[in-house]
Design a protein that fits this description.
Blueprint: E1 19-23, H1 28-39, E2 43-48, H2 57-61, E3 66-69, H3 75-85, E4 89-92, H4 99-104, H5 106-125, E5 132-136, H6 162-180, E6 194-200, E7 202-204, H7 214-223, E8 227-230, E9 236-241, H8 243-257, E10 266-269, E11 276-278, H9 279-289, E12 294-297, H10 315-321, H11 329-346, H12 351-364
Parallel strand pairs: 1-2, 1-4, 2-3, 4-5, 5-6, 6-10, 7-9, 8-12
Antiparallel strand pairs: 9-11
Helix pairs in contact: 3-5, 5-6, 9-11
The protein binds nicotinamide-adenine-dinucleotide.
Amino acid sequence: MESMVDFRTLFDGIYQGKKVLVTGHTGFKGSWLVYWLKQMGATVFGYSLSADTQPAHFNLFGADISECIADIRNQETLLEYFTKVQPDIVFHLAAQPLVRLSYADPVGTYSTNVMGTLHVLEACRHTASVKAIVIVSSDKCYDNREWEWGYRENDPMGGYDPYSSSKGCTELLTASYRNSFFNNADFGSKHQVLVASGRAGNVIGGGDWAADRLIPDMVKAAAVNNSVFIRNPLATRPWQHVLEPLSGYLMLGWRLLERRVEFAQGWNFGPAPESNLAVKDIVTLARNSWSDISIEYSTSPADAHEANLLMLDCSRANKLLHWKPIWDIHATVEHTIAWYRTFYKENSLLTNADLNNYISDAKRKDAIWTR
Ligand SMILES: NC(=O)c1ccc[n+]([C@@H]2O[C@H](COP(=O)([O-])OP(=O)(O)OC[C@H]3O[C@@H](n4cnc5c(N)ncnc54)[C@H](O)[C@@H]3O)[C@@H](O)[C@H]2O)c1
């Protein structure tokens, strides 16, 4: 049941009236972040390419924000936009986020993910208003050993495929900028900027229509009564609702804006261990929520290497940042599938309802950002 939430009190009201620049605002995660920030009274600015899926969540809810539709690889345009906007805080989400596409276009993937991040950090360095930067990376940034333990923040960076490797590079780049230009030891004397990064798992939720992702593939097929081929049924991933890592990124932004140096580092935002499920288990849960979903497992061998086993150890975020996941895997899949079913069957959006329900559940669990 949707209950009304007082958005102004969340995160101690830090986002009210703040100028927040989101890169990748037209994408899946970016669109939810924009929606949430707007509800909290932030003045939001976006920098990305136009949405490349049809439909696109960002276009569906019609966010009224100022935006610059341009390539993150265009350093001059990016810097001009930063100079014009003078943001207080930057959330950097723009990226080429697909593993399989990264095999087809490694150059585009590295240039967008690595040079794009470099351009954002440079633009921040040259924009006096910027006080906090949250770089969105991925669980795939770690050197994957295919072991059954979760990766910790101090494990080595790596990445087999170009996408994962580009996210490892993004983290190394972020750490270098933190050491060289935004050093925590010099904060408040030589500079005024704190930088953190967030490494999240496999994110699901309504409004994602990207190619080659499990949930979008299943619901797109269900909407037209087709079945879909699923690859890698035994691959295990840390599944989580999109609002979970977003609450982590917003917590980081909150603490950095409060000038809390100890939070300017890399953080894992993954689900509870019980949510680390195989693809086939997610399919079963999804079909329990929408019986129109029909799948067939692909018997052909994988055409490109993808990690099989990938888990995050989030003890540090749980203990020090007091961040914790709110929805278990059942609630996560139910909300996700209900969003698409409602969209396709009733032509309406559950974005607002999902956000209100998530925050109400977070309050019930006494999440620190709701107090
Ligand atoms: N979705 C997931 O499961 C997941 C998991 C871990 C990390 N991430 C990370 O989260 C971030 C957002 O992912 P998403 O799932 O929302 O992806 P998405 O594809 O839905 O959105 C990507 C956004 O980046 C923008 N973009 C891409 N190339 C660009 C370019 N050259 N110049 C300017 N803008 C560009 C797009 O326009 C879009 O707004 C990415 O950094 C991704 O690596 C996603």
